[in-house]
Design goal:
By secondary structure, the protein is α/β, with parallel strands linked by helices. It is built from 14 helices and 13 strands. This is ROK family protein.
């Protein structure tokens, strides 16, 4: 049997008919919820649409139910993705903790949990705990772990998207080149995608009703990173997965500060959440209380502490200077600020806005929207589920669904 490197030893699915893929895609996206609507929008013959829909229903991927709408004559029937078609499992890894979620193939979240292990405990311990907890969540909610269709893991590091591993991550000791994707494939027997955490945040923000693309997300946490969603809704990862790793661009101030990467004056070293906490003498987040540091910093700001206000405004100016360069390079329609430091919205937003509008040319900023995250800490989870859904309903993914039905 031929093996598929993305599916953990499963058989390579046969090519999916274009008509079948189009029909399923429209149902999954909510673009069309009836046979008649699919035929009208695609131009396919009704007999062809019915044949494909019947095949999907027989495979347990789609279900057809009577609509609750009140109409004359025969009640309309609505097509939806069957909740029995399978499950998505996602893990959003951060420095101090990992958020977990399971969802159905329609993107509805079924269950959530948090693993309170820092990344410096190493990949073996953390991934074992993540896998075990996800399996428990699936069982608790009545979902067969064998019917997980896709797993997505977000890492706070540059990621080799093809190999499914972190690449020389400054804040993740022991994770360099560790085969995260292979490990999770063995645990779940499903296709796995490993991506940078800010890329997932950007995808999550791009799903929101008020979002507009191109979209640029800046996460200010223990490190500083950027995620870029292009006008067509795809993520720009770069040739080697290093796109958006802006934390190691040199800031114009405090160039004598040593960064964890070994260089001097990196943006992460002078303007990250960790850097601000260190300079103000606030203990970093711990397993016992992940939110203590953020609460303490917010308290100092609320009390108009001079040192805290000055330090945050300096960080905002440093971030804004680098972001202004990105605005010129990428010309996004929307800039979203996320991460724990960005939760101090007035100070961070005003500082970043001031630097961007001062340093970027009017052509690049005249329609630019600068806003805090709409999803907050949920952005990575929502983005991971969206990415998994895209993969499940890709032509290759649909082939796997049909093969496993």
């Amino acid at each position: 049997m031929q093996k598929d490197g993305k599916t953990g030893g499963q058989a390579v699915p046969a090519p999916v008919a274009i008509a079948l893929h189009r029909v399923l895609g429209m149902i999954a996206n909510g673009e069309a919820t009836s046979r008649a609507a699919i035929a009208r929008l695609t131009g396919l013959a009704r007999s062809t649409v019915s044949q494909q829909v019947d095949s999907l229903i027989d495979g347990g991927i789609v279900e057809e139910t009577e609509s609750s709408q009140s109409v004359r004559g025969r009640p309309p029937r609505a097509l939806t993705i069957s909740p029995r078609a399978g499950t998505i499992a996602v893990a959003d890894v951060d420095v101090a903790a990992t958020q977990l979620a399971i969802a159905d193939l329609g993107g509805t979240i079924i269950g959530r949990d948090i693993v309170n292990l820092p990344v410096d405990r190493g990949p073996e311990e953390l991934l074992a705990e993540v896998s075990g907890r996800l399996h428990s969540m699936l069982t608790e909610h009545g979902h067969d772990p064998a019917r997980v269709r896709h797993v997505v893991a977000g890492l706070p590091a540059p990621v080799d998207f093809q190999r499914g591993c972190a690449v020389r991550p400054p804040i993740m000791p022991g994770w360099d080149a560790y085969p995260v994707g292979d490990y999770l494939r063995k645990q779940f027997g499903a296709a796995v995608t490993v991506d940078n955490d800010v890329n997932l945040m950007a995808l999550g923000e791009a799903t929101q009703e008020m979002a507009d693309t191109p979209l640029l997300v800046i996460k200010v946490g223990s490190g500083i990173g950027a995620g870029i969603v292009t006008a067509d809704g795809s993520v720009h990862r770069g040739a080697d997965g290093a796109a958006g790793d802006i934390g190691h661009i040199r800031a114009s101030t405090r160039r004598d500060v040593v960064c964890r990467c070994g260089k001097f004056g990196c943006l992460e070293a002078v303007a990250s959440h960790r850097a601000v906490l260190t300079d103000l003498g606030i203990a970093p987040p711990s397993i016992d209380d992940r939110l203590y540091a953020s609460r303490e910093l917010a308290r100092l700001v609320a009390d108009s502490d001079t040192s805290a206000l000055h330090r945050i405004r300096q960080a905002a100016a440093d971030i804004g200077e680098v972001v202004a360069m990105l605005i010129h390079t990428l010309n996004p329609r929307m800039l979203v600020l996320g991460g724990p430091l960005s939760e101090l919205q007035d100070e961070i937003l005003s500082g970043v806005r001031a630097a961007v509008y001062e340093q970027a040319l009017p052509l690049a900023t005249r329609k630019l929207i600068i806003t805090p995250s709409q999803l907050g800490t949920d952005a990575g989870i929502i983005g991971a589920i969206a990415l998994a859904g895209r993969e499940v309903f890709s032509q290759e993914g649909v082939g796997r669904l049909l093969a496993e039905a």
